């Protein structure tokens, strides 16, 4: 999707130039030079080269505060994601936090590197290689190493999740082959890498025989519940023949992702009423469900 297509897809041409987005933005409060309104105006004026070269393109927190308050409901976070993807394709990359350590881990995972990341889980309680419940741990084992000098124990929550599940008679699947959810890759413009990580995780969950997935990380939960389904129809259209779907996608379309241990449903997570439709056998049941909005901490 190029900038012109993004303007149409996210209806940025409906901007009223009211400035509510900039006035609501937490970044604009500390960095007056950053303005969602100005970014939209540059896109509408077809100043694409200048826009993609702007380093402030990477300052957005994607918190959705602007989207929540916009009177015309312009989805600015998704618009920014597309701009970042375009910038990345031109070789323009952001300055990554922690020297890009986590992004390097994700690239290694996408390449199929062999991992050893479940020793802590075996010490915490009973886990399995196959079963009905898959505990998606995410990047927590790597956080535990990267931030160790700060006295951060990121695995405490993950250990407690296993203990709670065990106390409820559930032995969760915790896998060495799990990859990061891809959240950072998606919002840093690396859509291709996000897709690879999603495909690997979906294949892994399917192979485990799991019927429900438990998350302790809000980023992982949001990515699986909203971002991956939102991209699903585009993947079905671009990677398979009309009316067909890969086995991974077919399995995922029969699940409803949950942050708690709920039984699965034939309906998948809502992809939004404006999303392109997949073949009817695998289409999400969105007829009575509003488009989900990204949570905001503000």
Number of domains: 2
Q: What is the structural class?
A: mainly alpha
Strand order in space, largest sheet: 1-2
Low-confidence stretches: 239-298
Gyration radius from CA atoms, angstroms? 20 Å
Major sheet summary line: 2 strands, parallel
**N to C succession of SSEs:** HHHHHHHHHEHHHHEHH
The separation of the N and C termini measures: 30 Å
Number of helices: 15
Net shape: elongated
List how many beta strands DSSP finds. Answer: 2
Q: What share of residues are in beta strands?
A: under 5%
Estimate the mean pLDDT confidence. 78
Q: What share of the residues lie within helices?
A: 40-55%
Write the layout of secondary structure elements.
Blueprint: H1 3-9, H2 20-24, H3 26-30, H4 36-44, H5 48-53, H6 65-69, H7 76-89, H8 101-110, H9 119-124, E1 133-136, H10 140-146, H11 155-167, H12 183-187, H13 191-208, E2 212-215, H14 218-239, H15 247-252
Parallel strand pairs: 1-2
Helix pairs in contact: 8-13
